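Quick log. Single chain, no ligands specified.
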Amino acid sequence: MRIPEFLQEKDCLGFIAPSYGCNIEPYRSGFINAQKKFSQMGFACDIGPNCYEGKGIGISNTPQKCGEEVNQYFSKKEVSAIISCGGGELMCEILDDIDFDLLAAQKPKWYMGFSDNTNLTYLLATICDTASVYGPCAAAFGMEPWHESLSDAMLLLQGKKTTITGYPLWEKESKKDEEHPLEPYNVTEQRRMKRYPDEDSVITGRLLGGCLDCLGRLVGTKYDQTRQFIEKYQNDGIIWYLEACDLNVMDIRRALWQLDHAGWFQYTKGFLIGRPLCFGEEMFGLNHYQAVADVLAKYQVPILMDLDIGHIPPMMPMVNGALATVTANGNDIMIAYDFSEK
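-> predicted structure:
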């Protein structure tokens, strides 16, 4: 696994919009303020041509132009790490315009984003054998003040923090809107981890995962090289982290059934499940806990649910492809990354 070099003082951050851009509020003001904060930290900022665009359908621009931007910024030697402007809906349509051979041939650099960015964070690991970060998008870094999770993400990119813990509170209702674009996370709810089986556990393996909405669409396409990846790293085992955006509880169950029957969960060591946006929903007697646990219980590995991963803030930065040790102790979770390999 190729581990990119960590950010150094005065390095250049590249920003691209392979999914939505920051052309509307509150994202535009958030992104502009994020650039100010990064500059104050000593980083240079290189803004991609699509960052303020809104010409595309479900993405910032045409699939071709979005793909070209990805290829360009991964090839830019002066750019040390890349942060996506935001999530979106149809980033899958740009994959035909991304040159994955080019990305794999370049010196590895960190790429960070979540949600629709699964289409790149996941494929960087499984196709290019390059670690990536499933973490906050650029506009979030404009909030005042930063939540601890934003600091964690940047400290991880700098190699200054390699152990991440869950956060005590999460956001049920956001106060950020067009008139309050820099509003911080409105964390009011206590974290309560659900565990199957209900016992403490220590899991070691390689992290892999992302947004279920996107992962299910990759199955069976030419971009699905998951089986090759897990075979290569079978001795390490895979720790899957998964979360859902638009999927209801039935959709979550169907998506997990699909990945299961595609053979993705062979060699699994455990499952880390983020709070879905349909948190608390129930359909025909099925809740989001049963939607997951009933499908995955047969693997007889720890299943940890309602974690700080994904669409309900805050989110722990998850490093695709990296070796990690996950410790679940009572209601607490800790992820310790091992970046010693090259």
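The chain has a mean pLDDT of 97.
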